[in-house]
Amino acid sequence: MKSPVIRFRIDFNHEANVGPGKIQLLETIKRSGSISQAARDIGMSYRRAWLLINSLNTSFQDLVVVSSTGGAGGGGARLTEFGERLLGSYRALERDITELSQERLKEITKLVAKQKSASPVPRKALARRLERNSTAI
């Protein structure tokens, strides 16, 4: 029996939010030391990554990521102390929510039907296919 996967987003206010995509980007920047490398590693455009980082940096009083432009020593990016706290708090909350959900959904999870195909269509691909089919009618 596989445990349910919980994905969540925190909306601090109308313009300040953090979810799985931004958290993955922060973790990848932390590992690679570069926004462009992090974007490549997770299959995201540099522009999208930059927009997400800018969104994070303007959502809080403290910066989440600082970067330096390239040059002789090369550029780079790193999480600030606040960025590290944000990342750690999100992951800790994720662990707590996952643990609680496993307990609360234990009986429901036992009743999930067996998967019929070995490779289900990814949700985004399915959504695009449904959208194309509905506009073709």
What is the fold's blueprint, element by element?
Blueprint lengths: L9 E2 L5 E2 L1 H13 L2 H7 L4 H14 L5 E4 L7 E4 L1 H24 L1 H4 L13 H14 L1
Helix pairs in contact: 1-2, 2-3
Helix and strand string, N-terminal first?
EEHHHEEHHH
Number of domains: 1
Number of strands: 4
Structural shape: globular
| Helix/strand/pairing category | mainly alpha
Give the number of helices: 6
* CATH homologous superfamily assignment: Winged helix-like DNA-binding domain superfamily/Winged helix DNA-binding domain
Strand count, sense and closure of the main sheet?
2 strands, antiparallel
Whole-angstrom Rg: 19 Å
Classify the fold: give the CATH topology.
Arc Repressor Mutant, subunit A
Low-confidence stretches: none
If classified by CATH, what would the architecture be?
Answer: Orthogonal Bundle
Q: CA-to-CA gap between the ends?
A: 40 Å
CATH class: Mainly Alpha
Question: How would you characterize the overall build of this protein?
Answer:
The chain has 137 residues and is mostly helical. It has a single domain, classed as Winged helix-like DNA-binding domain superfamily/Winged helix DNA-binding domain (Arc Repressor Mutant, subunit A, Orthogonal Bundle), CATH 1.10.10.10. The protein is built from six helices and four strands. It has a two-stranded antiparallel sheet. Strands 3-4 form a two-stranded antiparallel sheet. A hairpin with a 7-residue loop joins strand 3 (65-68) and strand 4. Helix 2 packs across helix 3 (46-59). The longest helix has 24 residues, at 81-104. The protein is globular and about 60 Å long.
